[in-house]
């Protein structure tokens, strides 16, 4: 898989650290597919419940930490990553998986 980058930023949006990952195990891909299904349901916007959104973001952060092989903690992720960056990384990982599948 091509590298995926996650950027930690300070309060002014300046990058303070960058993390990279280049591989995913099969079990992690299954988890990403499950989360992508949840994201799709939330995007449809039918009867969105705050607890569902909260659960989605908790699952998303846990998967991001696992994908990046625990190079940072949940707290560090919460304190140093903007929501837009979190979603960009998830979409980047998802598109890399799709790209790898098209190669086969």
Please explain how this structure is put together:
This protein is 62% helix and 12% strand. The chain has 104 residues and is of the alpha+beta class. It has one domain (4-103). Helix 1 (26-44) runs antiparallel to helix 2 (50-67). It is globular.
- How many domains? The number is 1
Proportion of residues in helical segments: 55-70%
Radius of gyration: 14 Å
From the spread of the alpha carbons, the general shape counts as globular
Give a quick rundown of the structure.
The protein has helices at 26-44, 50-67, 74-80, 83-103; strands at residues 4-9, 15-21.
Describe the secondary structure blueprint for this structure:
Elements: E1 4-9, E2 15-21, H1 26-44, H2 50-67, H3 74-80, H4 83-103
Antiparallel strand pairs: 1-2
Task: Provide key terms for this protein.
alpha+beta, 4 helices, two-stranded antiparallel ribbon, 104 residues
